[in-house]
Amino acid sequence: MKYSRTTLAFAIVGTLALGSTLVACSSSDSGSGGDSSSTTLDPNTKVTLNVVGLLPGAKPEAQQALAQEVTDFQKENPNITVKTHDYEWKATTFAADLAGGTLPTVFEIPFTDAKTLIANQQIVDMQAYLGQLSYASNFNKNLLQYGQGQDGHVYAIPAKSIYAVGLHYNRDLFTKAGLDPDKPPTTWDEVRADAKAIAEKTGQAGFAQMAKDGTGGWQLTVDTYARGGRMEDGKKATVTNGQTKAALQFLKDLRWSDNSMGANFDYDWSSINQAFAAGKIGMYTSGQDVYTSLVQTNNIDAKMYGLTMIPLSGGDSGVLGGGTMAAVSSKATNNEKAAAIKWIDFHYLRKYTNQAAAAKSAETQVASKQPVGTPELPIFSQSQYQQYQEWIKSYVNVPLNQMTTFTSKVFDAKLVNEPAVATQDVYKSLDTVVQSVLTNKDANIDQLLTEANAKAQRAIDAAG
């Protein structure tokens, strides 16, 4: 869903020295109290590692692909037993799940949350373990920094879904509305016109917007960035900016003047994906990587899917970007940490740096009818990502020709990260604003934003 801070420099990649002193002694682990100081795992030591798996409700084919990956990993590491658990990060439940100890040992977090979890000592220092990987110094340092503590050590590792928000659209609804699916809208005025045409001629929502569990504020931030505004200036909340007002007026016009947003104004990330895949939505904004989830969980028909750039207007306009990090619970034993880095390497990262691993991963996904080649943004260098794309070229089974108006332009756009301070609380303060605009014809945008700004500022001040 939502991730990162400060601008993601995808084309300019620096290296970060991750020199670590590894203790080369054997270890044994007789439970939570049986740790040694080694960062390497004795191959004779048996470890059970609980990790996040797929989204709840993932199709059997996706589960099959993950099960095969676990089998392959355990063949390579016969002393490690991996148990996967369905998982979806949600701002409203994550903190309680973490505090209650119900999360797996290895779990996923958005970029925005890593610093807080580090400060609260809820995830462990993985510096020495990461240093064991041959490619440890090749990470894009602009991404890696979000998982670093004040000591400079890495606690959370960039793992997947490094994304820029795009405009997803239903090619079938475009055709039924008399629109050209190969010429998606490039301005917000065109989005509005196309949404109205879809609603009038198909009876479906021409455009839909997420509105709850922090997603309303997330997508309103997307809309604001696209118009050149920002939600924070240092430690000052700025949600009353003119661009946010314009974004809300746009939604208000679609909803009340055009009647082109359907009847559901309570979408979150999962439910809007489900409705889109079911053909009930013409357009919506979300990370460009969401196609994989639409296949794995929502059984989308590839022929109806389209992806394009969100419209950008204004001198400082940009595309919101972010990603997912892998983290290890502070309750992990040393042997679990050592097993965790092996899983993170195998499951998330190795395919980007090793041709054989890239091919094996792609083969596994294709065999289970899972998507290969969904657009991503690079965890390492852009050149390394291009090399990875060459490695998997013969396996690609996603409709890239229906995404070219995004993939051909995204690297030329300014990528802007999410608000840096109290991100999720800032988003929550804006959820009610979006909901009010979509459900109350007489909603006062200025008043709503003034109230939201006060809430956001309190959260920012509390964050220190």
Topology:
Elements: E1 47-52, H1 60-76, E2 80-85, H2 94-99, E3 106-110, H3 114-119, H4 127-130, H5 141-144, E4 156-170, H6 171-176, H7 188-202, H8 215-226, E5 232-233, E6 236-237, H9 242-257, H10 269-277, E7 283-287, H11 290-298, E8 305-309, E9 319-328, H12 334-349, H13 355-367, H14 382-392, H15 404-407, E10 415-416, H16 423-439, H17 445-463
Parallel strand pairs: 1-2, 9-10
Antiparallel strand pairs: 3-9, 4-7, 4-8, 4-9, 5-6
Provide a quick synopsis of the model.
By secondary structure, the protein is of the alpha+beta class.
What is the CATH class designation of the largest domain?
A: Alpha Beta
Q: Sheet with the most strands?
A: 6 strands, mixed
Oligomer designation: single chain
Mean pLDDT equals 89
How would you explain this protein's 3D organization?
This protein is an alpha+beta fold. It folds into 2 domains: 47-162 and 322-395, Periplasmic binding protein-like II (D-Maltodextrin-Binding Protein, domain 2); 165-320 and 415-463, Periplasmic binding protein-like II (D-Maltodextrin-Binding Protein, domain 2), CATH 3.40.190.10. Helices cover 40% and strands 12% of the residues. The chain contains 17 helices and 10 strands. It has helices at residues 60-76, 94-99, 114-119, 127-130, 141-144, 171-176, 188-202, 215-226, 242-257, 269-277, 290-298, 334-349, 355-367, 382-392, 404-407, 423-439, 445-463, and strands at residues 47-52, 80-85, 106-110, 156-170, 232-233, 236-237, 283-287, 305-309, 319-328, 415-416. The strands form 3 sheets. Strands 3, 4, 7, 8, 9 and 10 form a 6-stranded mixed sheet that branches. Helix 1 links the parallel strand 1 and strand 2. Helix 1 packs antiparallel against helix 13, helix 8 (215-226) crosses helix 16 and helix 16 runs antiparallel to helix 17. The longest helix has 19 residues, at 445-463. The protein starts with 46 loop residues before the first strand and ends with a helix.
